[in-house]
Amino acid sequence: MKIKVFTLILCVVFSFGFTQTDEKALKDIYKTSLTNGKSYDWLEHLSNAIGGRLSGSKNAELAVQYTKAELEKLGLDKVWLQPVMVPKWERGEKEMAYIESSGSITKVNICALGGSIATGEDGIKAQVIEVKDFKELEGLGKAKVKGKIVFYNRPMQADLISTFDAYGGCVNQRYAGAMEASKYGATGVIVRSMNLRDDDYPHTGSMSYGDLLVSQRIPSAAISTNDANLLSDALKQDTNLQFYFKQSCKQFEDVQSYNVIGEITGSEFPDEYIIVGGHLDSWDLGDGAHDDGAGVVQSMDVLRLLKESGIIPKRSLRVVLFMNEENGLRGATEYARVAKEKNENHIFALESDAGGFTPRGFSFATNDTNFNQILGWKALFKPYLIHYFEKGGSGADVGPLKSETNVLAGLRPDSQRYFDHHHAANDTFEHVNKRELELGAATMTSLVYLFDKYGVNPVPNSNKIKD
Amino acid sequence: MKIKVFTLILCVVFSFGFTQTDEKALKDIYKTSLTNGKSYDWLEHLSNAIGGRLSGSKNAELAVQYTKAELEKLGLDKVWLQPVMVPKWERGEKEMAYIESSGSITKVNICALGGSIATGEDGIKAQVIEVKDFKELEGLGKAKVKGKIVFYNRPMQADLISTFDAYGGCVNQRYAGAMEASKYGATGVIVRSMNLRDDDYPHTGSMSYGDLLVSQRIPSAAISTNDANLLSDALKQDTNLQFYFKQSCKQFEDVQSYNVIGEITGSEFPDEYIIVGGHLDSWDLGDGAHDDGAGVVQSMDVLRLLKESGIIPKRSLRVVLFMNEENGLRGATEYARVAKEKNENHIFALESDAGGFTPRGFSFATNDTNFNQILGWKALFKPYLIHYFEKGGSGADVGPLKSETNVLAGLRPDSQRYFDHHHAANDTFEHVNKRELELGAATMTSLVYLFDKYGVNPVPNSNKIKD
Fold it and tell me: Would residue A392 be called left, alpha or beta, if left means φ above 0 and alpha means ψ between -120 and 50 degrees?
């Protein structure tokens, strides 16, 4: 047996930055969440009694009122609405699309992308040019693209372990596909849904026309993965096939909406703020249970679980339910603007916006000193199978709060099933597992407990990470 | 800020027992499984075309034939059936049960436990005595139990992070409930389903009468968690309520069945055997997709993925699809008996029998020397978010192969959703996620690859674990 073994002797300084009291606190938090959590009940209401909560919609307004009322029941020190103007876009009638080839018609499943213009009453019918990316589109140029529908069909990369990485490698087709195709005179855009599974659900999501003139804007829609495969196969048989689609979506004037905020004022350091949040708005096709009803109810339960566990926060803890993450980020922008105006010191901001699945850990955006402190807490989480503590991004809503000295973080649940549901009609309550949701809430609460107790180092990078 | 910090300086010897070739091999294995895996297709057939595969049933026989034929297509060195006699128990007609109180009837969802006797044509109607455990039953004694139906209603403990631990804390009610209740003259047994979720599915599973005389045997059934709660509440209102249930299940003579085995004979050490397996039989209510269709197809794909990745095993690799794990363990017992008879040196045996969910790692039953070697491989798995390498149990089917020097292991997927489906009518194909299943297959294949390459230490405990 020839084994090539690298033997390395390391002297490691482990700083266990926690006590037995902390071990007990986490145990209580997890137990309370799993036996007496509220997150699942709240999610049931948000998903089933209210439903999809697109910014500016009646449902978004109902969600604001409902979550405010629920936070008021918790006996927090303050609950309030923070006004913010949000965009309002409506899907209108259900979209319709088909492939026409050799005189036969095959219906396919599409949905308008958020922010797209309509096709007009008659819809659009044109030949299709399939591309994998913008470079291929550029190579084809106006000669081959003008008057056609551009079909972006680059699939998510299945061999990436994080499905978010796979999403990141594709989403420019959806966001900027129309903007790019318009340059070459395309008449419309069809984008393969951001979904790793082959199924019949089209997945919406935001798109932008950038600084295109109104006259240059073209309609764009997502097509289900099954139908993207179908269309691609059909094009191999008949490059001249015609594709028809019709959508009647519309952009309205901005409307008044709100972030919903609840606070427990700190007993020792009331001027240091810790926030935990998710976004209250969702896309309109499903009921937004995973994206981001889960993050909303978990964040609400963080403050409640701390109270239930008898923990009196030293710092000011806020739950912030952001409005308009999906198509504008207006709520997050406004929250950060007001925080800056009031000179509020946000030492830690945690977002849950990656679905209500079994939590695996967190991604931290912070300096090395803080990250080193955080690594000292990792062992505390081992009994709960929380193992992922990595530097990286945090969340779209907490992002604007970044400073040199603070910590931003995002909960990282298991990502494998997320894009089966993301922005689609099957992002619904029955696809959220109660225990998985509650474990996420407990994991977030535990981290908030630690930041509340120990704070963060006010001096950036005073101490390099030991490894 | 007062932080109580324990600082500990440790000198640790890390032995990285792998090479860059191994890193590359794992990358290939995961990529192949996620982009060109066969496990999901096989599972679709086992679940939807065949269905539930209770030992001795026609479906179990079909599953034997199907998996043998599929293994034969893989170009292994040998594929064969290993004969084994298995018990045959049939559920018969769908069970029926109701609560009768104050003249009103409320139907409830029950299912006979595997191995139970029938109630007879007329069913059983009796008063109910609810207990949490055998001690409480003993305390009540014959005076309070005789002639009644014993209702075991101890729920799974929700605050345990591993749902298998919660199952372990309850399953004696199901397995031995009738045996115990019979001692006090009970007329039948109703057991709360082993399910952490409140829903309407009764969960079956094996039960035993031990050495009770035939005349002392009483029928036992599981009741759904919702209806267990309903019954318990009803008993608080009316301790004299009547419970009726009828089941027509029957035990037959043992019948001929088989383990299905495929082998790639080792190129260097053909007399050292590595096996990977799951159990081909399942309960009859669902289609056994998670328990244990997933383990079967993952195990089949282990050998295929190694072949696809161009790896030529040094040791003899076998996939073993065990028959009759659920109600007898006859296949596992026979496989181990034959292995012993032939003096086959099984150095490593891996089982997947905990559902087709996202893999988290493995539990290893082995000596310290081997475990230390295994820990040296752990870092290889980090990119795949595999973090759980612990000593513990392995799997029911590989258990009989235990020796002083070998390694037994069980794949440990995320356990949160497992008991929502376990042994119930909703253990079906649509509840298995393709990527989660494929990640499990890749994780198993990676570990088999490492054991094949490096073997195990033939001397037990020659080297203590360093920590």
Answer: left
Of A248, A279, A302, which one is at a domain's C-terminal end?
Answer: A248
Nearest-angstrom CA–CA distance, B227 and B221: 13
- How confident is the model over B348-401, as pLDDT tens digits? 999 999 999 999 999 999 999 999 999 999 999 999 999 999 999 999 999 999
* Domain edge (last residue) among B248, B271, B290: B248
Q: Based on the domain organization, do B260 and B239 belong to the same domain?
A: no
One-letter amino acid at A217 equals R
| E strand spans, A68-225 | 78-90, 96-101, 104-107, 110-112, 124-131, 149-152, 188-192, 220-223
Residue from A315, A358, A363, A451 to probe the interface with B (highest B Cβ count within 10 Å): A358
Taking 50 as the pLDDT cut, the residues of chain A under it are 1-14, 463-467
Q: Which two tokens stand for residue B305?
A: 């993925």
pLDDT category, B15, cuts 50, 70, 90? low
Mark whether B81 and B98 lie in a shared domain.
no
B44 with B169, same domain: the answer is no
B126, part of any domain: yes
| Shared domain check, B341 and B218 | no
Convert the pLDDT of each residue in B39-95 to its tens digit: 999 999 999 999 999 999 999 999 999 999 999 999 999 999 999 999 999 999 999
Q: What is the mean pLDDT of the segment spanning B299-309? A: 97
Write down the ipTM of this complex: 0.94
Q: Is B23 marked active-site?
A: no
pLDDT, tens digit, for every residue of A391-434? 999 999 999 999 999 999 999 999 999 999 999 999 999 999 99
A414 touches chain B (CB under 8 A): yes
In a domain, A6, yes or no: no
Residues A176 and A305 in one domain: no
**Other Cβ atoms within 10 Å of A155 Cβ, number:** 19
A397 and A442 co-located in one domain: yes
Q: What is the reported pLDDT for B16?
A: 60
Rounded distance between C-alpha atoms, residue B25 and residue A26, angstroms: 39
The order of strands in the sheet holding A188-192 is A104-107, A96-101, A242-246, A124-131, A149-152, A188-192, A220-223, A110-112
Q: Which long-range contacts (CB under 8 A, 24 or more apart) does B339-342 make?
A: B339/B273, B339/B401
CA distance B161 to B2: 31
Q: Indicate yes or no: CB of A159 within 8 angstroms of CB of B434.
A: no
Residue % of chain B over a pLDDT of 90:
94
B246: pLDDT strictly greater than 50: yes
Neighbour tally for B11: CB within 10 Å: 9
Tokens of B274: 């590595």
Residues of B in contact with A439 (CB under 8 A): 161, 416
Q: Is the CB of residue A158 less than 8 Å away from at least one CB of chain B?
A: yes
pTM: 0.95
